[in-house]
Design a protein that fits this description.
Elements (H helix, E strand, L loop, with lengths): L4 E4 L3 H10 L3 E4 L5 H6 L7 E4 L8 E3 L5 E4 L4 H6 L1 H6 L1 H9 L3 H6 L2 H6 L5 H4 L43 H7 L3 E5 L5 E5 H4 L18 E7 L6 E7 L10 E7 L5 E6 L9 H4 L6 H8 L11 H15 L2
Parallel strand pairs: 1-3, 2-3
Antiparallel strand pairs: 4-5, 5-8, 6-7, 6-8, 9-10, 10-11
Keywords: FAD, Flavoprotein
Organism: Acuticoccus sediminis
InterPro entries: CO_DH_flav_C, CO_DH_flav_C_dom_sf, Diverse_Substr_Oxidored, FAD-bd_PCMH, FAD-bd_PCMH-like_sf, FAD-bd_PCMH_sub1, FAD-bd_PCMH_sub2, Mopterin_DH_FAD-bd
Amino acid sequence: MRAFSYERASDPAAAARRAAEVEGARYIAGGTNLLDLMKLEIETPVHLIDVSGTGLDEITETEDGGLRIGALVKNTALAADQRVRRDYAVLTRALVAGASGQLRNKATTAGNLLQRTRCPYFYDTAMPCNKRTPGAGCAALSEGAFSRQLGIIGTSEACIATHPSDMAVALRALDAVVETVTPAGDTRAIPLEDFHRLPGDTPQTETVLEPGELVTAVTLPAPVGGRHAYHKARDRASYAFALVSVALIRLPDGSGRVALGGVAPKPWRRAEADAELPNGARAVMARLLEGARPTEENAFKITLAERTLAAMLAEG
């Protein structure tokens, strides 16, 4: 790990101003992803701004009947909140499916959204990776590469990495909105649909956040009701990232919402696929994964996604 300086911030807007002032600065709170990346020298910030004391750790009700989740709310507390368990159960189930209990006790809402890919070539500094070193090439697309875990849709010729978050998949199904503060003190509300970028030619730019911009909260609209389910297919029963995950909200009239994880660089959902839900899993996946470009190793994800959703629908 390389040397870095450190300071604690007590105000979100002040933290954003400070981040814009110091080139190479990064925010830290739970640190469950960033510290690992620093140890491997994949991330080499020269200055850390600790935002854990900025007071963004509350869950409050909004005027329109939804919830506002502070950026620093721990994953364990969010999963256990009675309002979340009652009205947004898909979120609780996704959080419990992610990571270990110890990690959930440290990981935060904003950190979960901003965690970086688990592509093995991103973590192997001996291999080329456009996300880690722009212009270096993508080892995952080379002949004989290991791509079982990687993306099948929304990818590009520069990157086929997936977003690792379970929580973000549930938030996508819930139409969550990300709140931020900029270094100038302005605030923004960014629909989660637009928050993560597809890789294109610049896979190193993973979100629409501007330099120094700080995530302050995630808001959920009023509950939509229905049955909420989250299923994660993975290689081990616990502590493994998703091969495919499915977030499902099914309403009594048969309509609903479906979002996928483990298949794309961002939580994957399409409104036209939601509209196919009354017609069954095959119809949904035909729309949701239309245009998929799997590798030979991960083409099974298309079938796995369809069968996972079919099993969830069969449960009622």
